[in-house]
Design goal:
CATH class of chain A: Alpha Beta
Number of helices of chain A: 8
CATH superfamily of chain A: Chorismate synthase AroC
Oligomer: homotetramer
Strand order of the largest sheet of chain A: 1-2-3-7-4
Helix content of chain A: 25-40%
Chain lengths: ~350, ~350, ~350, ~350
């Protein structure tokens, strides 16, 4: 219930940033798929700290060990467990602030909820947990690929600078994982500037799924957009999500926002995609389009007011190797959660195929 | 899986807009609560069509019959089933367009998914289904009330006009269910104007939950904001959701967006609420604040291009008694879904109370 | 969680024996199935009180109203809600014993759990709740039938008298719903004798599912026999369940109990069926065979020692119209739960069909 | 869905007998419990192969590594992942029979279901998977212990020899883990004799939970006995389960089988425990009593008829280090599953405590 995502295809994750290992179990994955290990490796690399100049200076190896569910490299239909040992963690970075609640982090809420917390690096609420999602997402993508579905995401806004015109041809290159647009360089510079100023910035990630057949997702509480919204907001730094015309839909008239339809060569064609590929919770054959808002990294090397874990006022300055923005590294995490959600919905759909 | 929401406290809904009845089952509701029937009645009235000049001219009675789970007016811990008979539906309004796919509606996706659909009034994907949610929400609110939690929502933007300054003192009055603000009258006029022009408009609803204790929600996939996002996007017309500073967080620096903390009279106080009351998926004691974007009503009495259910091009003009904007009537639905989500999370939390 | 059974195909039930109605919601049922209403009616009749001389003298009409999920008699893929109004209940029968805990019933545990209970006729724990299961089972059987699966059950032991030799050709006839065997008449007489003596008896029901394809059910916690065991023990009067050679397997040697295999006309044939059609939790193509032990009806018109709801010693004699044995009426309930379980597992299996 | 057990407190397991590791994730476990590692170690030892003369000659070390969820030895409320590396497996034992379907095993059903299987030692359906359950059960027992609940099981029948008179004072000693009874030595001899004769035997395990408060479990589909039945039948070798008087209830009269009640020193006392501690699915404060039937080990060193994985007739003789009976080693597994089920139900109950 708490650490499991999905209904038929599920990912359960475990691990704290400075514990022995993080990892998870992918269950409900079909048998008979020869996993592409290089693809998994390359997906893990996209999220790995230290992989780009925009990120933290931490260099984690993030080597994934698969413990079960494979026989001669082929999935057997049984649970695929995997782990990534924590090797590069330097807990001493946290000894200064062990007893302080970092603003914008879950320190206070964990302490209040559980009466205990692992103070090293955020423990369970560390972004490091998302490495397990990227592994799960890589498997989901391989499954989706066999159904002709592809998922791509990119940064379309960072530090308040929006990409104005771009083509959508993912995957997009590091360090920003943004589409080629006039503003890309400025975004990168703004992130670096924030770092110099001991501050951080956020951004917006767009994610699109292409090739999703009509009929995925269910009316009412199993709406595909509801499941994707759950998926996105389960990522720690995400503070909002929208589909298709999204919040702008609220400002449009029905005559503008409705996607009209025509037949074209025997296929249904929508004249626009304000719906973001989902009508009444069910995919309509268009690209599924969503955007997730990423907040600025809360760990900053500046004085901030806070309290201790014995509930006294104090100040805090979070040193350590933190990303000035996690928007770039979150791209592959957004893709992973979208892939897991859509793959699950696609399997559920198969129960009812006529 | 498909028509059930929640984990411990669940709402399962049923019914098509022009079938015999709509309704549902609330399960996991605590025993021993004397239900306030007038409150339920008054919640239902807030959603009911024809209740305000802004809405449709349809006048539905929406009389709820409770079928089980009560003994002498007190809940017994067993499932509370309820139904609302469909009495005022005029299916002939739909005979013209029975074979046409209404743009912006789920007609095409239902037909493609199921190979069959109830063409009368949207069938299962009709907004009428939300009446069952309002009933469930009313029960959730009564439960929350016993824990000191209250939920209120209001329209803060309609037809592109934003409320600029207002106090938050819900419930807000009909017809718009918006807080008292300089723009309220303009919003109402803009909705009426859209109606005159055979068009429709959308808007944004803010919802706040007060009195939520610290520690509700879970890290990772059970994050309270993830559950709320799922809840919101399960409402047909919602195209986006954000928490606290939301999409604006993406444009702020960490130093601005972090909510700093101080002790005040032995209580933890946050100096701001950019987090929207949730840190790491767990409530922090602040008001939970979210906003949902409502798209313009897709049913409009204008010519639009579409296709038939035998996949040929056609035009459509959706007559009938439709709301020019559903933003006002959606306020109580947003509250209901927030209440169900938070009440469920609160019950889950109790398992672990020390 | 509490009143819902199944994973993809679910049945949620509601209702107390003397409330307004009982009923439920079947969710996840495929679209496009023209329901056979006569078959539903005839299934309901098999469970209905007063239908045979062995049962209670109560005559309930048990008319089912379908409230949703059908369009022109064909399922639409949306939830199928149904209700049976309680019309023949005579609550006055319970006024004598309203404050007494009936031995063998859930009166005491309900009172202790909820602090409140509906004392009329057992309330939620009444056998009347199983009418909703019979309806759900009828739908499941119709679905299974389209996959070539049939379910049949019969009484093979009553009042301690075992059927010795019989052919398995269900459905079996009332009043006992037992296969034609030398002991059938004695069983019926023994039940009638118990009634005359103001006592009650139990029995054993065997249930077989034929035509279940190989590969249904999952290893580990989703084993088909585990799901069926859950299903059977969810029926109030069932105190045990066994599969294939069952408890006798514990007394056999491996060399006797293993089902050896041979190819026959290109098909796998097992030389015996001690496994009851399930190996490692997965159907093996043989008939699935289970037996459920039904306890004697706890309501008897004899003095028994008990306590009041204010926790004082008292005596009780449960008058009213009770079955001297519910084993006959439980036959269709056992079938219904088996059908729901297997239909659900079959749909889940389809997700992974190659 | 497939490899997860429980609702609030869940155990998800992974691993094949001859893969890299087996293990699992315990989720929903309360924070703040200092785990007793010695107790876990000693529970693991009870199941470990080679630990008694009755079992297999395989000697597995079964060292458990906890990967997450602990901070300074105390649970933090986050998922507790654990693994046991497979070190002593000798896959060559299986090369002879790699392409043969072992009778009584899941070889054929796995092959038919997945189109692929790990032929080494049963793969996922190996009894080795239960080591993960024993770990989960050890944690559940520690949690239950803090609520005053204790779980004990023992062999009460083996090779057709029933224990006649015994006291219930678990834990019972190896090698048979049976209560002290006149027949214990004969049971042990019968198992050894079966081994000499290249055959195997089964048995019956009784399990009792003491100290379970009144009110655990839910009416209808969440009945505590239904959940326990699911738990028991999820153990590979279990072919039947019964509660209280169980199958014998079917042969009793209501007047014998009902547990009458009296007040005694202000406490409710049942004059018998035919119900096995559960009435209407809810615990009644008595000991919960269940019995599980264990089939004889299917792996026997005798010629048996079977087929190959290319569907041709063949013979098989399963050499290797197999238990002549797994009834002794299954005792701790039965306890573990009972503990997980009751601990979960107890946490669920807490949501509603008044």
């Amino acid at each position: 219930m708490f650490n499991t995502f999905g209904r038929i295809l599920t990912l359960t994750t475990f691990g704290e940033s400075h514990g022995k290992a993080i990892g998870g179990i992918v269950d409900g994955y079909p048998a008979g798929i020869a996993l592409d290990m290089e693809m998994i490796e390359s997906e893990m690399a996209r999220r790995r700290p230290g992989s780009t100049k925009l990120g933290t200076a931490r260099s984690e190896k993030d080597e994934v060990k698969i413990l079960s569910g494979l026989y001669n490299g082929v999935t057997t239909g049984t649970p695929i467990a995997f782990m990534i040992e924590n090797t590069s963690q330097i807990s001493s970075h946290y000894s200064d602030i062990e007893h302080k609640m970092r603003p914008g982090h879950a320190d206070y809420t964990f302490q209040a909820k559980y009466g205990i917390r692992d103070p090293r690096g955020g423990g369970r609420s560390s972004g490091r947990e998302t490495a397990a999602r990227v592994f799960g997402g890589a498997l989901a993508k391989q499954l989706l690929s066999s159904f002709g579905v592809s998922i791509g995401a990119g940064v379309i806004e960072a530090a308040g600078i929006k990409a104005t015109s771009y083509e959508w041809n993912p995957p997009f290159p590091p360090p920003l994982y943004a589409p080629d647009c006039p503003e890309r360089e400025s975004m990168i510079n703004a992130i670096e500037k924030a770092k110099e100023e001991c501050d951080s910035v956020g951004g917006i990630i767009e994610c699109r799924a292409s090739g999703v057949p009509v009929g995925i997702g269910d009316p009412v509480f199993g709406k595909l957009d509801a499941l994707l919204a759950h998926a996105m907001l389960s990522i720690g730094a995400v503070k909002g999500v929208e589909f298709g015309s999204g919040f702008e839909a609220a400002r449009k008239r029905g005559s503008e926002n409705n996607d009209q339809m025509r037949m074209e060569n025997g296929e249904v064609r929508f004249l626009s995609n304000n719906a973001g590929g989902i009508l009444g919770g069910i995919s309509n054959g268009n690209d599924i389009v969503l955007r997730a808002a990423i907040k600025p990294t809360p760990s900053i090397a500046r004085e901030q007011l806070t309290i201790t874990d014995t509930y006294e006022d104090t100040d805090i300055c979070v040193h350590g190797r933190h990303d000035p923005s996690i928007v770039a590294r979150a791209v592959v995490v957004v893709e992973a959660m979208a892939a897991l959600t859509i793959a699950d919905a696609l399997l559920v759909r198969r129960c009812y195929e006529r």
